[in-house]
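Hi everyone,

Forwarding the result from last night's run.
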Amino acid sequence: MGIHRIAGREAILAVILLLVAGVGSWSWAADEAAEPAAAAESAPPAQPAASGPTTADLKVMADTLWVLVTGMLVFFMNLGFACVESGMCRAKNCVNILSKNFVVFAVSSIGFWVIGWGLMFGNGNSFIGTSGLFMVGGTDADYSALSWTSVPLWAKFFFQLVFCGTAATIVSGAVAERIKYLSFIVFSFVIAMCIYPVVGHWVWGGGWLQSRGFLDFAGSTQVHSIGGWAALTGVIILGPRIGKYSATGKVNAIPGHNLSLATIGCLVLWFGWFGFNPGSTMAADPNAIAEILVTTNSAAAAATLSATIVAWILLGKPDLGMTLNGCLAGLVAITAPCAFVSVGASVIIGLIAGVIVVLGVLFFDRIKCDDPVGATSVHLLNGVFGTICVGLFATPDRLARAGNPAAVAGLFYGGGATQLITQLIGVAACAVFVLATSAIAWLVLKYTMGIRVSPEEEMTGLDIGEHGNEAYPNFVKTGNTMAGF
């Protein structure tokens, strides 16, 4: 860059434009040539030229911008969950489901700020963090597990917060149409403050699983399996919706009221995942971001197709609900290995995930676990599968580039079974802890404040019973349909 003078507003504009364009290094010019000697003598003494931002400063700026924008994309996924869940459930419960999805992020924000962050990332022991508890504070030195990223403390906090909120909202759909509103809120606090942070410390906070070499890049286990195990426990303890299963064991379909809304929600989630996975680099690394975007998209596309085909074969029709859940299953499955596998492997992972989700929905119905939206099949089964895929498909070069040079390649890439065993240990540890703690929480709630609405309220709809209003007050409802809708 030639030597020239950039003053005031021009300098600010140049910084913004060049930062957005991804320029990695800048140089700043000296002052212009001195005025003639006579003019110089009459002028006041020259002031030292202000130094511009260094390359390191600009990297922090770019990394912070990337982390915050992708964190906002993950936050936007709350809209996707709200649309998917409400669309796949009955009209009489629409307000209740929308309200749960709205309030759960507020609950997570406060719970994670008060204690969850410190338990998860605070310096402590291999089991739990002990610094930075009771309202986030201190300095970066109190959270050494995240010292590898250069972004400021509050950027780290926000990005991790939106992941916590995602784990909590997974439970909402699985227990929909029969859970008490207040009980769900209390349980969401338990996840955000206790369950999610403890496993998070093991996986991402410098705990014992991370020390063993367990890998979960963006949260197949840390986000989706935690939400899935907690949801499954709630489904079992709550019991099925009235009329879902007959006395003879027949499964009665209870269709959702608005698949248009569910489809919009799925597309929002697909879009949000482009922040979820690539944002987990927590650095503006162009090569890593680009490849993670493609592995994420490829898995979603492959799973969409395989789920559609399998549902078509087994059900006789290409069921849209299965197609949507197939897409989400592929996204969940690729979340752990997205930075560690090739694009070709991501397609294989997606194809298998789409099959798993269809078979999972049918399996849970067969054992009378009533999950109205298929959350356990999407998030639990494919969270486990995706975590295992790291041990199968991770390549040495990608592990090194992602900052894991000591990790072992997957089984199909010359690494043997070492990493696979480590991944299985992580899956089992998460399952045992979340099943135990969530079961305790659900049972305490059941025998104190209660967790299920009355049969009369369930038949009438939770919108009226829990909230006193309706999503569609001007339509005449007949069963699950609405005249004029």
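The first strand starts at residue 476 and ends at 478.

Cheers,
N.
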